[in-house]
Amino acid sequence: MERRKATSQWIDFTWRPVAVLPGQPDAAPWTVLTVDGETTTFYAGSIDVELYRTETGNYRDNLASGAPSLWVKLRRPASSRATNSSR
After folding, report:
1. Which is it for strands 31-36 and 39-43: parallel, antiparallel or unpaired?
2. Which residues fall within 8 angstroms of residue 13, CB to CB, at 6 or more apart?
3. Backbone phi, then psi, for 16, in 5-degree steps?
4. Which of 2, 12, 80, 84 shows its CA 20 to 30 Å from the CA of 63?
5. Nearest to 20 by CA among 3, 35, 39, 1
6. CA-CA distance, 64 to 74, in Å (whole number)?
């Protein structure tokens, strides 16, 4: 994941996925990989990707597009949500 300083009055940072790694590296989630000015790249952790046979056509079309995509959804840990929801 890449965290970049935002140019906004409402948020401090923007986040975006920049790579998907095959396998599982020997690093803890949220390990800093690089820092370059106001941009920091993290290893966000691992998760199993589940594929469904009913979606085969969509997978094929995605791979044949020339720019295959993978959707990533980030969420705060439950402990962080509980703290913020009490306000």
Report:
1. antiparallel
2. 3, 4, 5, 6
3. -155, 145
4. 2
5. 1
6. 26
* Residue 47 Cα to chain centre, angstroms: 11
Three-class SS state of 44 = coil
Query: Mean pLDDT over residues 17-28, rounded?
Result: 89
CA distance 29 to 21: 13
Q: How close are the terminal C-alpha atoms of the chain, in Å?
A: 28
Instruction: Measure the CA–CA gap between 41 and 62, rounded to whole angstroms.
Output: 26
Q: What is the pLDDT of residues 47-73, one digit of tens each?
A: 888 899 999 999 999 999 999 988 888
Q: Which two tokens stand for residue 47?
A: 């998760």
Task: Specify the pLDDT at position 21.
Answer: 85
Mean residue pLDDT across the chain? 87
